[in-house]
Amino acid sequence: MSIQIDWQAFTPISLVGGLMLGVATVILLLGIGRIAGISGIFSSLLKPKRVEMWQILFILGLVISPVLYRLARPLPNVEISTSLPLLIAAGLLVGFGTRLGSGCTSGHGICGNARLSPRSLAATVTFMLLGIVTVYIGRHVLGLL
Amino acid sequence: MLKNIIGLLAGLLFGFGLLVSGMTDPVKVQGFLDVFGAWDISLALVMGGGLFVAFFGVLLAKRQENSWIGTPIDMPSKTVITKQLIIGAMLFGIGWGLVGICPGPGIVLLGTGQWQAYVFIPAMVVGMLVYQWFEPKIG
Q1: Between the CA atoms of A60, A61, A62 and A63, what dihedral angle is there, to the nearest 10 degrees?
Q2: CA distance B64 to B74
Q3: How far, in Å, are A67, B10, B118 from residue A55 at the CA level?
Q4: Which of A9, A39, A52, A123 could form a disulfide with A104 if both were Cys (CB 3.0 to 4.6 A apart)?
Q5: Does the distance separating the beta carbons of A130 and B89 come in below 8 Å?
Q6: Nearest 5 degrees, angle CA A81-CA A97-CA A67?
Q7: DSSP symbols for A36-78
Q8: Mean pLDDT, rounded, of chain B
Q9: Minimal Cα–Cα distance from B79 to chain A, Å?
Q10: Is the pLDDT of residue A59 over 80?
Q11: Between chains, do B67 and A131 touch, taking CB under 8 Å as contact?
């Protein structure tokens, strides 16, 4: 196995997006003292007795962000070719896994690692590794992805 | 009131960041995870950029008694790496690799009208509800 970087697909603008994600988490942390963990905030919507208004509005902000974005510039072209059963299986795994593991790419990957949390570092290494293995097997062994 | 406005603005900015970064494009996400294929390293910049800013945010937060609205600042202090944490991260990693969508981008794709998000997110909700039902049994 050799590693080949696909420079044609490389998009330096991703750095700008990353900085924006950082600013959003800092606004939430300094502004209201809360962690921008998307799976955690989203799952609080499933607990009607405990959900807070800001959590509903945060998720609403995510949903309407492309609507506003489109006013300024065209939305990035997204093509998803994943089959229906795979979409369902992945959704179930992501939902269950992020709750059992207390976070996802935002809560662990950005917020937790910024705190130098050993739990978040362990979680990030684990989900990155499993993501890499899954794409390797799915794409290069089974030819499914 | 201010708390709600900050929540909404943070959600909007987070959504814009996901759109600009390429995280809402599963082809790019899978390209990033495809280390042994044609590796698209762009998304390393997303975590790098996000972490860079968030790191300074955490430094500021540690010097602050309270948040801007006067509430205490949430700093999870658990350090124990449990079986639940690792198994959960493993399951999440597999699901993320299968379609290239994690929770934030999945929710943003609801707003772009991508029909696949209307399958993925309800399935994610079911996964979370199964956990809620399962949680008391595993402690």
Answers
A1: 50
A2: 12
A3: 19, 10, 20
A4: A39
A5: yes
A6: 50
A7: --HHHHHHHTT-TTT--HHHHHHHHHHHHHHHHHHHHSPPPP-
A8: 95
A9: 6
A10: yes
A11: no
B126's CB contacts (< 8 A; 6+ apart) are A91, A92, A95
A100 touches chain B (CB under 8 A): yes
**Which of the residues in chain B have pLDDT under 50?**
none
Cα angle, residue B134 at apex, residues A111 and B105 outer, rounded to 5°: 35
B118: contact with A, CB 8 A cutoff? no
Which residue intervals of B64-101 are DSSP H helices? 83-99
Cα A18 to Cα A13: distance, rounded to the nearest angstrom = 9
Domain ranges of chain B: 2-138
pLDDT, residue A77, reads 87
Its sign, for the CA torsion A76, A82, A86, A88, is positive
Quote the pLDDT of residue B139.
Answer: 58
Which two tokens mark A1? 């196995």
Which residue on chain B is closest to A67 by alpha carbon? B111
Residue B15 one-letter amino acid: G
Owner of token pair 């390293």: B41
**Distance between CA atoms of residues A9 and A138, nearest Å:** 21
Whether the pLDDT of residue A44 is over 70: the answer is: yes
d(CA A8, CA B99): 22
Task: Give the mean model confidence (pLDDT) for residues A121-134.
Answer: 98
**Contact with chain A for residue B35, Cβ under 8 A:** yes
Tell me the per-residue pLDDT of B64-99, one tens digit each, with 9 for 90 and over. Answer: 989 999 999 988 889 999 999 999 999 999 999 999
> Which member of B36, B73, B109 has the closest CB to residue A3?
B36
